[in-house]
Design goal:
The chain has 12 helices and 12 strands. The chain is about 35% helix and about 15% strand. By secondary structure, the protein is α/β, with parallel strands linked by helices. It starts with a helix and ends with a helix. The strands form 3 sheets. Strands 3-2-1-4-5-6-12-9 form an 8-stranded mixed beta sheet, sandwiched between helices. The protein has a two-stranded antiparallel ribbon with strand order 7-8. The chain has helices spanning about 5-10, 30-40, 60-70, 95-100, 125-135, 145-155, 190-195, 195-205, 225-230, 240-250, 265-275, 320-330; strands spanning about 15-20, 45-50, 80, 140, 165-170, 210, 225, 260-265, 280-285, 285-290, 300, 310-315. It has one domain: Inosine-uridine Nucleoside N-ribohydrolase, Chain A (Alpha-Beta Complex). Helix 2 packs parallel to helix 3.
Length: about 325
């Protein structure tokens, strides 16, 4: 039986993506806009809203990057809400202060649409509104610092009982000894490190959670889009595929991490996990966030003495996951 478009949408998983897509800036990770393209292409997902956070770029710029992706896919109907520009502690990490003074703080090689007036810092409200509109149905896919999600929980704690699940890309537990700890410090992954207070609030919320960390998003598991596969993207097939190819090519001009010849698709794996919970192997764990350590700030720590608060992806067939992500995006 072939489902109609309406039937497909009704059976799809409703999601919000909280993200920090840098689009068209050499060296800025390509995974966030690719994650958005995949979410738009995958029929198992119904993307209700996008909220922008800081990280790769400031949230006013990541919001414009998100709008660019939506436009390329012909989905201007999906709202984009600009997020909070600072972590909950009130001070932007020094690494980001310096980065935003350079190319990561301004529009790059790809033209971006302007934002509507009055769209500043409304991401938490968008999360609250959407969750209340579809209680117990919405999965929040958090693929940047978790500031907006934490702020939404602080503003309206009742949404903790109404969010179906949070799937997030972040952290590392050392399961993979080569890549599974830190990428911004020796022990901290950037999405958690940039706002550990927010991550701690989200981790402690009681909401069902799944963690997709550096332990599985790395070259050793095969979660990397190699240069030859990038060159094979059918850029002339559609505006979405043209943007897909251009984003990857721009990243390859100056890769942010020397993790192999290609783009590590950290965030698209989290979106794939939202669409297909069986894409990886999981283990129930209690995971805490270090919020005060001078040398360990942002570290994600497994706590064997406490009850599990999330499902942690511990293994994945990365090559198969990447092939599925690319093949799905090519349908746009």
């Amino acid at each position: 039986m072939v489902l109609t478009e309406r039937e497909t949408k009704m059976s799809s998983k409703k999601i919000i993506i909280d993200t920090d897509p840098g689009v068209g800036i050499p060296g800025t990770d390509a995974d966030d806009p690719i994650a958005l393209l995949f979410a738009l292409a995958d029929k198992r997902l119904d993307l209700l809203a996008v909220t922008s956070t800081f990280g790769n770029c400031p949230p006013w710029l990541t919001a414009r990057g998100a709008k660019k992706v939506l436009q390329a896919a012909g989905r201007d109907d999906i709202p984009v809400a600009q997020g909070i520009p600072l972590p909950l502690g009130g001070v932007l990490p020094q690494e980001l202060q310096e980065a935003y003074k350079g190319p990561r703080g301004k529009v790059g090689k790809i033209d971006l649409p302007e934002l509507e007036k009055g769209s500043s810092s409304i991401a938490p409200e968008q999360i609250i509104k959407t969750v209340h509109q579809y209680p117990h149905e919405v999965t929040v896919v958090a693929i940047g610092p978790q500031t907006n999600v934490a702020a939404a929980l602080l503003i309206d704690p009742s949404i903790a009982d109404e969010i179906k699940e949070i799937v997030f890309m972040g952290g590392g537990l050392g399961i993979n000894p080569t890549y599974g700890k830190g990428n911004v410090t020796p022990v901290a992954e950037c999405n958690i490190y940039f706002d550990p207070i927010a991550a701690n609030i989200v981790f402690s919320s009681g909401i069902p959670m799944r963690m997709v960390s550096l332990d599985v998003t790395n070259p050793e598991t095969g979660v990397i889009l190699r240069d030859d596969a990038i060159k094979a993207i059918p850029a002339d097939k559609s505006p979405a595929n043209a943007l897909f190819a251009e984003i990857c090519a721009t990243y390859m001009e100056k890769p942010m991490f020397d993790w192999g010849d290609g783009c590590v698709l950290y965030d698209p794996l989290a979106v794939l996990a939202a669409a297909d919970p069986e894409v990886g192997t999981y283990e129930s764990m209690s995971v805490k966030v270090e919020t005060k350590g001078q040398y360990t700030l942002g570290e994600t720590v497994p706590d064997k003495q406490s009850a599990p608060n999330m499902q942690v992806m511990t293994d994945v067939d990365g090559a198969a996951a990447i092939a599925e992500i690319v093949k799905t995006i090519e349908t746009l």
